[in-house]
Amino acid sequence: xxxxxxxxxxxxxxxxxxxxxxHTSVSAWMxxxxxxxxxxxxxxxxxxxxEAEHGAFTEAELERARKRVFGPKMRRxxxxxxx
Length: 83
Known about the structure:
The protein starts with 8 loop residues before the first helix and ends in a 13-residue tail after the last helix. The longest helix has 29 residues, at 26-54. The chain is mostly helical. The chain has helices spanning 9-21, 26-54, 59-70. It has one domain. It is elongated.
């Protein structure tokens, strides 16, 4: 399927460089990036649905999840903003 999009000049240059660095086409790189973005979006929706039913995750639960995902020595991501 073909999709024509317009991106800012700086984004275009970064995408072209990233695709080149990964030895792939811009189309393949953009498809992969879109898949990752959609997966993240679906995950955030699932978390919101779970929290709506069960309540917000505690800070201790979030810390355990961070360690599981990023490992104990990885730089910790910024905390989520309240909804």
